[in-house]
Amino acid sequence: MEEKETRSLLYLDGITVSFDGFRALNKLSLTIEPGEMRAIIGPNGAGKTTMMDVVTGKTRPDDGDAVFDGAHDLTSLDETEIAVLGIGRKFQKPTVFESHTVEDNLRLALKSDRRARATLWWRESAAEAARIDEILKTIRLPSVRDRLAGSLSHGQKQWLEIGMLLAQEPKLLLVDEPVAGMTDAETRQTAELLREINRDRTVVVVEHDMTFVRDLGVRVTVLHEGSVIAEGSIDQVSANERVIEVYLGR
Amino acid sequence: MITGFVARSFDRGAVAFLVVLAALAVLVPALNLLLPPSSPFHVPTYLVSLFGKYVCYALLALSIDLIWGYCGILSLGHGAFFALGGYAMGMYLMRQIGARGVYANPILPDFMVFLNWPALPPYWYGFQHFPYAALMVLLVPGVLAFVFGWFAFRSRVTGVYLSIITQALTYALMLGFFRNNFGFGGNNGLTDFKDILGFNVQAPGTRAALFTISVVALMLGFVICRAIVASKFGKVLIAIRDAEARTRFLGYRVESYKLFVFTLSACMAGVAGALYVPQVGIINPSEFAPANSIEAVIWVAVGGRGTLTGAAIGAVLVNYAKTYFTSGALAPYWLFALGGLFVFVTLVLPRGIVGTLRHWQSERRARTPARAAAPEPVVAAPRPAE
User: Fold this and answer.
1) pLDDT-derived band of residue A42, with 50, 70 and 90 as boundaries?
2) Is the domain of A32 the same as that of A66?
3) Where are the domains of chain B?
4) A108 interaction partners in chain B (CB closer than 8 Å)
5) Is the pLDDT of residue A70 over 90?
6) CA distance B333 to B325
7) What is the domain extent for residue A130?
8) Is the pLDDT at B164 greater than 50, yes or no?
9) B262: phi then psi, degrees, rounded to nearest 5
10) Are residues A99 and A193 in the same domain?
């Protein structure tokens, strides 16, 4: 692959993924600039999750380029390598380590040497302990730090997972449906939390909830059948005829 | 560094377990050797060997619990590593027989003379030396587990599929070892041992020493496992067990972690096998039988998966029950009892004995608010076998 001249943090060009003849992504092109927060919306089956799978190395595209930070070809790396490069992912269904405490979940996520030998001899440093305290405060969970993550409420688990993303100190956060199943109050707090995170990190949010996307007030990309059909502010895209057609049906 | 590493990994249960083992290591041989047979507290030599056998099984169970209870790798072929360690020790013991065999051949074991083999096959070289044999006890199971694990874990073979392959591995080895031309005594295996390090293997003193060494090996295995599961490495293992994909997305190289514990576990199983052979006096291919490996997994399930102490206790309890059943009128029903036990544990005690006790304990602590303030980490009970 030739070196792409790009200053974008994430650069996707012509990504195509087929499953048994079904095109989940069809020549998808998308760029995310450093420091940006972007919302990605689209009806079911539009390819939002598949796009995240490609970026995080879970799925290899049949065709196209995926470049991270101007230098790393994501299509040739696996999940672990991509995570170490600095792309963090929050799943649609909250996946925290249920039989670890909240604190240990963060401890595992904290940016550190991931090799087996290092973890065997690892001792917590004061800086690490302070960082965990700080993250617990950010995600509003200091009171439950010793509870098992499995016993948290749905919304708390979502926050814990966001906290784990923060602990990884990624350059790019991919957040898949962060407010699915949340109450209105939790949804608002989550929007606030994401904006806070966006102060020092680039964030891509995939979401169904239009009010939430409106709350975020960021640039929106609309996917449909594996390609981008519109991009712009929420008001611009909601006025787009093609988008209306896709969402409301003909 | 090492002392801190070990010190932070012990709770009260672990210390109690070690103390009991240490007491056993001293008491059983003392009651056997120092008291006259007429004393009511005398432990007969056959019991010393029987207990020694249980201790070896406990070490095997511990090795299974490390990978199954903490990392979710259900090996249904761990008996293979146990048997390979046993064979390595058996080969040493065979070479010690020397000219005292039936055919009085100073080099060749009896079965080779019987098969008209002209010379010792090269893979038997060096086994007359104890240090070499001891090295092989660790190396053979370790290397096999490493190679097997390297392929299996890199290809991301998990769950039931991995269990089936491990089962196939032990079955293939069993078929191989049953063949005479494989060079390990065919279906008779290796037996008629005379000496170990110059001591008569039948002598009460040797038996007592073997028992003590087995208990010490179990203690050592426990300390190593405990230190591992209490480290951050251990937390990563549990993370892999509960959400493997998530662990990958956090940037951990899951296959390296699995490979390390799997290989270590195989070495521990090998040591267990090596200590088992001189105490029972025989090793033959039936040790590779898939049913043996499955039985060992049942011990762990009964005692409590992911508890370490539970695995050892489960191994001893189930084997005691087995001895009790199979030596009386109930002998024909042992397999029914074993099957029933597994069903019972899965339905009624999915956490196993020790797991259930710990669960009650942590629930009681949660109900006492004063104590709940102490941030003692609750030991995570793994979900019942999926």
Assistant:
1) confident
2) yes
3) 2-372
4) 232, 235-236, 239, 247, 250
5) no
6) 8
7) 91-173+180-201
8) yes
9) -65, -45
10) yes
Q: Tell me which chain B residues have a C-beta less than 8 angstroms from the C-beta of A89.
A: 249
B187 or B373, which is more confident?
B187
| Nearest residue, CB atoms, B250 vs list A98, A99, A168 | A168
Answer whether A146 sits within 8 Å of B231, measured CB to CB.
no
The answer to whether B233 contacts A56, with C-beta atoms less than 8 Å apart, is no
Mean of pLDDT over chain A: 90
Residue A161 φ/ψ region, left for φ over 0, alpha for ψ in the -120 to 50 degree band, beta for the rest = alpha
Task: Examine residue A212 and state whether it is found in any structural domain, yes or no.
Answer: no
- In a shared domain, residues A142 and A224: no
User: What is the nearest CA distance from A152 to chain B, expressed in angstroms?
Assistant: 15
Q: Which amino acid is at A16?
A: T
Same domain for A250 and A186: no
Q: For residue B377, is pLDDT > 70? A: no
DSSP B339-365: HHHHHHHHHH-TTHHHHHHHHHHHHHH
Residue A207 is assigned to a structural domain of this protein? no
- Residue B193 contacts residue B94 (beta carbons within 8 Å): yes
Q: Give the integer Cα–Cα distance in Å for A210 and A216.
A: 10
Same domain, A7 and A54: yes
What six digits make up the tokens of B229? 């599961």
CB of A22 within 8 Å of a chain B CB? The answer is no
Residues of B in contact with A168 (CB under 8 A): 250-251
Which of A89, A99, A122 is the closest to B242 by Cβ?
Answer: A99
Interchain contact A100–B (C-beta under 8 A): yes
Interface residue A171 vs chain B (CB under 8 A): no
Same domain (yes/no): A140, A124: yes
Average pLDDT over residues A168-191: 89
Residue A17 belongs to domain with CATH number: 3.40.50.300
For B226, the closest chain A residue by CA position comes to: A120
Burial (CB count <10 Å: 0-12, 13-18, 19+), residue B332 = exposed
The answer to whether the CB atoms of A168 and B251 lie below 8 A apart is yes
pLDDT at B327: 85
Q: Are residues A63 and A156 in the same domain?
A: no
A208 part of a folded domain: no
Asked if A19 has any chain B CB less than 8 Å from its own CB, the reply is: no
Which amino acid is present at B328? Answer: G
Cβ–Cβ of B380/A100 closer than 8 Å? yes
How many H helices and E strands in chain B? 16, 4
Considering the entire predicted model, what is its pTM?
0.90
Total number of domains constituting chain A:
2
Q: State residue A177's pLDDT score.
A: 87
Handedness of CA A27, B245, A118, A135 (dihedral sign): positive
* A97 and A74 in a common domain: no
